[in-house]
Write a structure and sequence with these properties.
alpha/beta, 45% helix, 15% strand
Length: 165
């Protein structure tokens, strides 16, 4: 084991980075030496990136919606303009149905969920892959957030797993 963090000189982009798994992943990348672009619709992501940067970590934030193609492009452009490359992407942004049975979810809520959980991943990957390929070596991860917790579907939470399939 060396004293040099494993990801020095590498750049990671994490969506859904304002809380939970996304925040923990962003911190892990930063503590491993990577420069990290934290992305979320929640403005708290800026506070989080700033407080991490104040401790000497290389972090920056982008407020953006993964279901918006322009926002996905801006996330990658930000990584490239700030750090010159993109090596890792962790597409973690996702939403659920707020624990309602599927027969009580309106079509607009369903479409929003699919737009973020499925289309958002596609839009992010479409922008990330060329930038990551240009960096020479890359790792891309997409998390179906519900399953990562080791839980099985429940009747009142049956919408997120199909929308992240």
């Amino acid at each position: 084991m060396t004293d040099t963090p494993e990801f020095v000189g590498k750049v990671a982009l994490v969506t859904g980075a304002a809380s939970g798994i996304g925040a923990a992943t962003a911190q892990a990348f930063a503590y491993a030496g990577a420069s990290v672009v934290l992305c979320d619709t929640n403005p708290e992501v800026e506070t989080m990136a700033l407080s991490m940067a104040e401790t000497g970590l290389h972090t920056t934030a982008v407020i953006g919606d993964t279901s918006n193609a322009n926002d996905c492009a801006a996330m990658v452009e930000h990584a490239l303009s700030q750090y010159g490359r993109l090596d890792f992407s962790f597409n973690n942004a996702g939403i659920g149905s707020r624990m309602r049975p599927i027969d009580q979810i309106d079509e607009n809520s369903w479409q929003r969920m699919v737009s973020i959980n499925l289309t958002g991943v596609f839009l992010c990957m479409r922008e990330q892959i060329p930038a990551m390929t240009a960096s020479g070596a890359a790792s891309l991860s997409t998390t179906p957030r519900y399953w990562v917790c080791g839980q099985s579907p429940k009747p009142a939470s049956s919408t997120q797993p199909p929308s992240t399939a």
